[in-house]
Amino acid sequence: MEGKLTCPYCEMEQYGHEPDEMSAYCCLEQCEHCGEEFWYSVSVRRTYSTEKGE
Fold first, then answer.
1. 28, 4, 1: which is closest to 16 by C-alpha?
2. Whole-angstrom Cα distance, residue 8 to residue 11?
3. What gap in Å lies between CA 43 and CA 22, rounded to an integer?
4. Is residue 2 very low, low, confident or very high in pLDDT (cuts 50, 70, 90)?
5. Which residues contact 17 (CB under 8 A, 6 or more apart)?
6. Phi/psi of residue 29, each to 5°?
7. What are the pLDDT digits (tens) for 6-36?
8. What is the model's pTM?
9. What DSSP designation does 13 have?
10. Who has the most CB within 10 Å: 8, 9, 14, 17?
11. How far is CA 23 from CA 8, 27, 43, in A?
């Protein structure tokens, strides 16, 4: 599910999960609903825009 971390065992969204600050290949998480541990990867993308100051 794009943009949401879900458990691969019970398929419930992880509501207490803080957004990741950087991309990572392997992160370990424990499901807040069923208690199972699972690995996930995350890709974080930032976009910057600028404006001239007055």
1. 4
2. 5
3. 7
4. low
5. 5, 29
6. -135, 145
7. 999 999 999 887 777 788 888 899 999 999 9
8. 0.71
9. B
10. 14
11. 20, 10, 4
